[in-house]
């Protein structure tokens, strides 16, 4: 039974520009892949079904993998089912795009399991029906994202730092975060800033995540995580997505290890990503 990796992402900068007439917000962000990853596998089954190792992830039609399989079945006009197994390693409701990455992995690999193919244009359209972050996970590399997050410009971002993620176990609803964020126009050339900022780190001070303000107000513990990262020697720290995960960039791998130990001892979960990390995908495990 082949199994596929669905990696998490972080947001390097996240500006909420304005609210659109269709209810979505225009944003500007850079998505970047990191550890951890979920593992997705398929087994033959007369119907579509989902099992997962997480008690907080639904196993019925509310699961985004179930929705991805249903959309594909409809699009391909297939009557076959599939049992999707998810080894859930990415924390849920954590701003790491776990559900979105799982869904994209289903879109990419389930057609092959059913001995069918789907064009990349069709895949993008199906992905956007599932969620604003799903299209990003259809391709490799980092990407500047605009619009709802689906207007993507992929590029290679060399991150020469150890990335430490810390999740304090708070589940944040993305819908709640959008209700409380204050949009602001932003002219920043984010892609250029990221590329230059990785070599000239003081430039990273221009980065912001607009969700931090409302989220820190509601959950002060998440601000504490960010402060702990900076105290432990991170050259830059920010919340990812709408939270609750905070990441820190460390130029010294030992400092990152030590910081992980300090954060772990407070009962929070940590994950390390090596400098210049690049997932080898698509790749059966
Ligand atoms: P994003 O950064 O894309 O906004 P997130 O990382 O904050 O997302 P997810 O972990 O994707 O959040 O979960 C969001 C919600 O989706 C949760 O309430 C969860 O119950 C539901 N969900 C449905 N399917 C999945 C899945 N396969 N994995 C994780 N969550 C799922």
Overall description:
The protein is α+β, with helices and mostly antiparallel strands. 31% of the residues lie in helices and 27% in strands. The chain folds into two domains: 152 residues, Ribosomal Protein S5, domain 2 (2-Layer Sandwich), CATH 3.30.230.10; 116 residues, GHMP kinase, C-terminal domain (Alpha-Beta Plaits, 2-Layer Sandwich), CATH 3.30.70.890. The chain has eight helices and ten strands. The strands form two sheets. Strands 1, 2, 3, 4, 5 and 6 form a six-stranded mixed β-sheet that branches. The longest helix is centred in the middle third of the chain and has 16 residues. Adenosine-5'-triphosphate (ATP) binds next to α1 and α2.
Summarize the structure.
The protein has 285 residues and is of the alpha+beta class. Helices cover 31% and strands 27% of the residues. The chain has 2 domains: 3-154, 2-Layer Sandwich (Ribosomal Protein S5, domain 2), CATH 3.30.230; 158-273, Alpha-Beta Plaits (2-Layer Sandwich), CATH 3.30.70.890.
Question: How would you summarize the topology of this molecule?
Answer:
Elements: E1 3-19, E2 25-43, E3 48-52, H1 64-76, E4 82-87, H2 98-113, H3 120-130, E5 142-146, E6 151-155, E7 162-167, H4 174-180, H5 190-197, H6 212-218, H7 220-231, E8 236-239, E9 246-250, H8 253-265, E10 269-273
Parallel strand pairs: 3-4
Antiparallel strand pairs: 1-2, 2-4, 2-5, 5-6, 7-9, 7-10, 8-9
Helix pairs in contact: 1-2, 2-3, 6-7
Adenosine-5'-triphosphate (ATP) is lined by residues 57-58, 62-65, 86, 92-100, 102, 133, 174, 241-242.
